[in-house]
Amino acid sequence: MQHWERVEGFVQVVRHGSFVAAARYLQVSSSHVSRLVSHLEQQLGTQLLYRSTRQIRLTEAGNVYYEACRQLFDGVRDAELLLQQHQGLPSGVLKITAPATFGDKYIAPLVNDFQLRYPQLKINMYFSNRQVEMIEEGFDLGIRMGVLRESTLVARRLCDRREYIVGSPDYLARIAPPQTLTDLERHNCLIGTRGYWLMQQNGQRKDINVHGNWQANSGPALLDAALKGLGLAQLPDYYVDEHLASGKLVAVLNEFQSAEMGVWVVYPQQRHLAPKVRLLVDFLVEQFKTGIAGLEF
Fold this sequence. Notes:
Elements: H1 2-16, H2 19-26, H3 30-44, E1 49-51, E2 56-58, H4 60-87, E3 93-98, H5 100-117, E4 122-127, E5 141-145, E6 153-161, E7 163-167, H6 169-174, E8 189-190, E9 196-201, E10 204-209, H7 219-227, E11 232-236, H8 237-246, E12 250-252, E13 261-268, H9 275-290
Parallel strand pairs: 3-4, 3-5, 8-11
Antiparallel strand pairs: 1-2, 5-13, 6-13, 7-11, 7-12, 9-10
Helix pairs in contact: 1-2, 1-3, 1-4, 2-3, 5-9
């Protein structure tokens, strides 16, 4: 068993690209993973990895050993997945990532409902506006917004998302609402994570650089600033729909509103998809299809 643990530590270090990432995946300390690999090298009597402060790379012997061990581990994983599929029940840890506010508002309640169906699952949800590296960080599935960049991930569409330029009635009474994109130059534009706004002009996407005296990497903070009349903000529909309906916010430049963009559930491509992933993906797609308040489908 000790030998198997050492081999697994080595395989995960190579697969994830670092001791830290492998330790995160194995849920142990990086020093523990380092000891496992060192003991394995001592046991085999050969160096498997070249180590530096910035990277690791396989030795010639390490490459041969890794290929053999990788196939062994992949075979064991496939056997476990086949057994789970035969039994038809999800099991183990289900690790999920999503953008912060969208995750809090829509994904967490649905995942909680899912766990009520399958209480044997251990759920681990991580919400952040940082786009995580799913495979390297060991996530089973994630939620992505907008245009997907090319990747090996499988994607299924959940719903559409629209972006609005909004301001409070008080702010727009002080500074006349913009009629053209160039009018934004005389407005205080509240800036989020991006330093530009996504717009559409003549059917083409246009990224508009905006300027203002306020910036934060928090959607709720951006919404609060707009509601308090500090300036104009660009925010997605699930932030502003209720405030547009109540009149607390007013949408401007609607004719330049960015085209609808998708919200996607993504997951690593596998020959045998684990039941826990397959069932949750199907559950999320079905729940969004039946309709969730504030979102369009």
